[in-house]
Amino acid sequence: MGGDLPGARHLTLHAHAGPRPTGRLRWGRRRAQSQRSLPWRYIVSAGNQAVLGIEDYIHGFLADPEVKVIGVFLEGLRDAPAFHEAALAAAERGVPVVVLKGGVTAVGARLAMSHTSSLAGADAFYDALFRRVGVIRCATLPEFEETLKLVAVWGAKPGRRLVAFSSSGGDSRMAADFATQAGLELPQPTAEQTAAVLSELPPYGQVSNPLDFTAVMWGAREPLARAFTALMREGADKAVLVVDHPQQAEGVSPAVEAMIQAPEQASETTGVPGAVSSVNPESIPPAMRAR
């Protein structure tokens, strides 16, 4: 999606409905309708589950050791106990199941019944079931796509402690708000970490988590790598760099490339997984998404 994505493909999708979810998410050089570069391995559209149900496909996907995460666009369950068993099997194998549920409202539930004869049921039932078996539930298609991609790349790594970096105070505040709303923790730097980061920032720089390393540091790979390493070395489970790519014809700008390499270097040093995110996903060119 959004160009060829190199490397192994670890992501599988089961779509309860017809062509729209699969078409929206499909991998294809010319037919992709999404620009989020997901590493698909399988995509299945099961329709009304007349023969095989969601649980059957989950068990089938689990037979492939290359599958790292399973996504499900779900209208309703035909066999809740069987889904419960399949989801537990996925959890035992360390393969997260991510669900985008349709038919949440009364109108949507009626449409689910008329579309695939699915009983959407009370949403509270699905919430309780998903929590019981460790299913990750998403509310929107973009959230579904990004969650699948993140888990496919990172794996199911525990921990809620996040460190975030940006060159903008506004981006840092949004990162803090989004992280808090998502239930993540933002541990503040220790005195030792603060001193190490201050030594890399301009004189007017301030150290916090999220870190606003200021626009002066745009493209400064080595100082940023040292600052990121200092914050990721202690008290962090995951890290994210928030950066928007300037518009240009193609490729990744040298400055942005340098900033992407900084958290990569810090991740290699600390073992803490890192990611690059954007306020506006549309600003990320294909070459940058493919990284």
Short summary:
With 291 residues, this protein is an alpha/beta fold. The protein has eleven helices and nine strands.
Q: Report the radius of gyration as a whole number of Å.
A: 21 Å
User: Average pLDDT, to the nearest integer?
Assistant: 82
- Tell me the number of helical segments per DSSP (H or I, 4 or more residues long): 11
CATH-assigned fold name of the largest domain: Rossmann fold
Biggest β-sheet description: 5 strands, parallel
In the CATH hierarchy, what is the superfamily of the largest domain?
A: Succinyl-CoA synthetase domains
How many E-type strands? Answer: 9
Beta-strand level of the residues, as a percent range?
Answer: 5-15%
Task: Note poorly predicted spans.
Answer: 1-7, 18-24, 26-32, 115-120
Keywords: Tricarboxylic acid cycle
GO biological process, one term: tricarboxylic acid cycle
InterPro entries: Succ_CoA_lig_flav_dom (IPR032875), Succinyl-CoA_synth-like (IPR016102)
Domain Succinyl-CoA synthetase-like flavodoxin: 34-150
